[in-house]
Amino acid sequence: MLPVVVIAGRPNVGKSTLFNKLAGRRHALVADTPGVTRDRKDATAMLRGREVRLVDTAGLEESAPETLYGRMRASSEAAVSQADLVLFVIDARAGVTPADEHFAAWLRRQGRPMLLVVNKAEGRGGAAAALDAYSLGLGEPIAISAEHSEGIADLMGHIADRLPEGPSREDRPDTLKLAIVGRPNAGKSTLLNRLIGEERMITGPEPGLTRDSVAVRFHDEQGAIELVDTAGLRKRARVDVGLEKMSTSSTIEALKMAEVVVVAVDATEAEQGRGLHDQDLQIARLVEREGRACIIAMTKWDAVTDRNFARKAVSDRLEASLAQMKGIPVVTLSGITGQGVDKLLPTVRQAHEIWNRRVATGALNRWFEAALERHQAPLVDGRRLKLRYITQAKARPPTFIVFGTRAEQTPEDYQRYLVNSLRETFSLPGTPVRIQFRGSNNPYADE
Predict the structure, then answer these.
(1) What is the per-residue pLDDT across 378-434, written as a single tens digit (0 to 9) for each?
(2) Residue 446 included in any domain
(3) Has residue 326 been placed in a domain?
(4) Assigned domain for 87 exists
(5) Residue 109 is part of which domain span?
(6) Which one-letter DSSP state was computed for residue 233?
(7) What's 226's domain CATH number?
(8) What is the pLDDT of residues 274-283, one digit of tens each?
(9) How far apart are CA 39 and CA 74, in angstroms?
């Protein structure tokens, strides 16, 4: 296991800016609005030659446990309890506040190794203000400006010096990258919590609780999985707030980094309506366009009364509207009760295997000859195309190249025939299948 470094502090002291700076790329949303970060967010980072797991947390606030901010604080406290090192961040511009003093006292009682980080300490004035932080009794303050990259190298050195030994990069197993996407309030965060066995994500009746893409590493029987829960994707016309636009962008970026994508669909809505909402289909088409393996998870299954109707309505809509990913597996489950959740990860592993599959060249060309015999290549401008042979260019997703005279002119309906036949013959359900066509005048052109 990698050593865990948790960034904690009250809201709007720059925790997410520091997280992004240490991680080396924009993982967390950053805005002037306090409380943007609601869930713990993970990233792997290399700090002075040490690989660590960084955790960004929601701001520590005093709130009733049943409120949203109370649930956010409970999540942050759980992260601190698992930390190998806590970076307690305060704001040099605001000075030491009563809230800082309260949470500093609480952190001391937790008994975790800690560094006191004074952020927004630009220039001489900021460094002088950082001296006030000695009053917290947490040792020497480390003055930085995450926004301007001042003091970051020094902070990395302090972190590396305080960490326990961890495994090298070479010792880490291959990790399957999985994303959960869907419309707001489809049960994505509840499902993630059930999969990992802890209340990692903030959940509740309020739609849109998850604002950013949040990664969690865990293991199943076959190895490591990096699971990303994402903010709900709305129709573009309804995404008109700056922070929500950032959330949508983060979700699409997470989807592009994934290998397998679970599209969470609210089964209660599927039962009431046409099976799948138009936006659910648009999300699935986005998954196909990005070339990722896809699974449909019908969530809230415990609340569905006519299950046969709901299941058939979804299957019919997929068959009619998503033919380019024919055979997408559908898993019915409930994140609340746990019903059916045990079927999801085996389905994910199977989809991942199909997405990585390579077809032997001999078997591929035997299929190709038979496919041409069943339905010969069409006429184009009065002349029949001569499709000569096929090869698999790559997997992830399975991608093939057909060579022949004027192959690039192959009509779309014949292309669909070949894709469907390939999918059926070599058992490639629910994954994008790409076929490219190259004219024989330049068969070795770049892809």
Answers:
(1) 999 889 999 999 999 889 999 999 999 999 999 999 999 999 999 999 999 989 999
(2) no
(3) yes
(4) yes
(5) 4-170
(6) P
(7) 3.40.50.300
(8) 668 888 888 8
(9) 10
